[in-house]
């Protein structure tokens, strides 16, 4: 369902595709830099010190989240400049795409790239060696990982809308809320293999972020009710 966001809302618009690909590239660069920092830290530390290695892993996850949000801010700045250029080039003085639409497409770009890398890791684990759950561990690893990938794609989409809205209206607490939610969801992954402890809170946060993003985008309870009842 998450990848359907691209098919139904972006695929037919060339400008949206460009914004999505650029957003995915920004996320990829943030991952590359955070992975490089973590790799250097691990190589420079004692591999026999399990407590230190766990601490470095936590540091790597938190640093990656902060770097992703920093690149989200840089991408917002870039798109803001792009809108000014589009307005200057247009005949009617209007941009062909609004900042709200850009926020949505950029969020989908971040989410799809994040989901793609999660799928690659799952496929790599599926190749073996070994069988999931053979030593008494949960056999739901692949299923729960798929659900976690989906929730992250949706969350990145909603976070993009919230983050851009906070930047646009200088509501820094909205930006801080996005960073805190991102840190929380990433930190919940350390609850695994107790998957309920990570999946349930993540989906609750996704529901809250979805409602928040819907309201900031101009949605209302009446419009939602009409949509659910298939009324024009």
Summarize the structure.
This protein has 232 residues and is an all-alpha fold. It has 8 helices and no strands.
Can you describe this structure?
The protein has about 230 residues and is mainly alpha-helical. It has one domain (about 1-220). The protein has eight helices and no strands. Potential subunit of the gamma-secretase complex, an endoprotease complex that catalyzes the intramembrane cleavage of integral proteins such as Notch receptors. It is a multi-pass membrane protein. Belongs to the APH-1 family.
Short descriptors:
globular; mainly alpha; 232 residues; single chain
DSSP strand count: 0
Helix/strand-derived category reads: mainly alpha
Mean pLDDT: 83
- Specify Rg, calculated over alpha carbons: 20 Å
User: What's the total helix number?
Assistant: 8
What distance lies between the first and last C-alpha atoms, to the nearest angstrom?
24 Å
Query: What is the number of independent domains?
Result: 1
Strand content of the residues, in percent? under 5%
H-E string: HHHHHHHH
Please summarize the sheet with the most strands.
Answer: none
